[in-house]
Amino acid sequence: MEMARRKKMVSFALDPEILKKLDEWIAAQPVPPSKTAVLEAALKKFIGETEKS
Fold this sequence. Notes:
This protein is mainly alpha-helical. The chain has helices at 16-28, 35-51.
């Protein structure tokens, strides 16, 4: 039986310096989150803040 995906795969390019900083931040966390979790949280925060403007 095949499980339905809850998330949709996307592909995009990031500046290498931003990606390096992201990897460093993740590695410094006591329990390192996935890149997906970090990017989703950042996007939710950005979208939420811009909708209030």
